[in-house]
Amino acid sequence: MQVQTYLFFDGTCEEAVNFYRDALGAEVQAIMRYSDSPEPLPPGMVPEGKEHQVMHTAFRIGETTVMASDAPCGDAQPQFGGFSLSSMPPTRPRPGACSRRSPKAAR
């Protein structure tokens, strides 16, 4: 099973993606703004002046795909509920580590 993360921002999605690119080497796979929508958006979905914000983006950090967008909040104030993020850098076994036996295992 694969779990994918979707992050919502209040107008700072592009800034966050740039941070992930610079800090973690994220590779942007796609980015679409509300103004790029192939279908007309419902009236009032995106407040005036926010058409340039990110409707959807996907980027990879290592082998993980992360998706994100600027949530169209209108006049609502977003509330931060917190999150946890952990990263596990790849590890490589020391040369010969798998072929050696511990003295206790040899008994």
Task: Please provide a brief summary of the model.
The chain has 107 residues and is an alpha+beta fold. It is built from 2 helices and 4 strands; from the N terminus they run E-H-E-E-E-H.
Task: List the SSEs and their pairings.
Layout: E1 5-9, H1 13-24, E2 27-33, E3 54-61, E4 64-70, H2 103-106
Parallel strand pairs: 1-4
Antiparallel strand pairs: 2-3, 3-4
Task: Characterise this structure.
- The chain has a 4-stranded mixed beta sheet, with helices on one face.
- It is an alpha+beta fold and about 110 residues long.
- It starts with a strand and ends with a helix.
- Helix content is about 15%, strand content about 25%.
- The model has no long low-confidence stretch (mean pLDDT about 80).
